[in-house]
Design a protein that fits this description.
With 201 residues, this protein is mainly α. 83% of the residues lie in helices and 0% in strands. The protein has seven helices and no strands. Helix 1 packs antiparallel against helix 4, helix 4 runs antiparallel to helix 6 and helix 6 runs antiparallel to helix 7. It comes from Gimesia maris. Keywords: Membrane, Transmembrane, Transmembrane helix. This is SMODS and SLOG-associating 2TM effector domain-containing protein.
């Protein structure tokens, strides 16, 4: 798998996890204080915030941050990550379609100007646009980017199924402390699965 695909997968999951963890941190801290039995809270909100701030988009989120996001939103993490990848796909699709349309239109216009009207200046102008468009296609490479986005969407689907399998037992745990511990463990295993999936493609 190309480095860009790995970055897209990791950054999509990381951005979704951090956003959901930030959103749900206050809710869970309130619940954990209500469940607190001793002097140690169930969730260390400062540690989670530090992990979120230290988060690198080219790596996967820490299991504790991912556990908080999962405790709040469950599989919404993968829906949000998938939405980000699909937005990348749509952008690249529009760019690819535009580049191909401009290329075909300028090539046809150059041929019409050269052979039908006999106006060589317009033929040269449209031919220049076609050549510049080819350079844009070679530099931007929109078809390869479309392919990458599709591969990452497929990887997210695989990881989503594995996430559901790994967290099915966690959802049945009622107390927050046990559920967070279970989700941390599940996300630790899921990180290993992500690396396996990344190597497979």
């Amino acid at each position: 798998m190309a480095l860009n695909e790995q970055q897209l997968l990791r950054s999509s999951i990381n951005a979704a996890v951090c956003e959901l963890a930030n959103r749900g941190l206050h809710e869970l801290v309130g619940v954990s204080r209500a469940e607190e039995t001793g002097t140690v809270p169930v969730i260390d909100s400062d540690e989670i915030r530090r992990d979120i701030e230290a988060s690198n988009l080219n790596s996967l989120p820490s299991p504790s941050v991912a556990a908080v996001a999962s405790a709040v939103a469950g599989p919404e993490v993968f829906r949000m990550a998938s939405k980000r990848v699909r937005a990348t796909f749509r952008l690249n699709f529009v760019v690819a379609t535009t580049l191909v349309t401009v290329f075909v239109a300028s090539l046809v216009s150059a041929i019409i100007c050269a052979f039908i009207t006999g106006d060589n200046w317009w033929a040269v102008a449209f031919g220049g646009v076609a050549i510049a468009d080819i350079a844009g296609i070679l530099v931007f490479n929109p078809l390869q980017r479309l392919d990458r986005a599709m591969v990452v969407c497929n990887m997210l689907e695989i990881l989503y199924v594995r996430y559901l399998d790994a967290t099915v037992d966690c959802e049945e745990i009622e107390e927050l402390d046990g559920r967070i511990k279970c989700l941390k463990s599940a996300w630790s295993e899921l990180r290993k699965e992500v690396e396996k999936v990344v190597k497979t493609y």
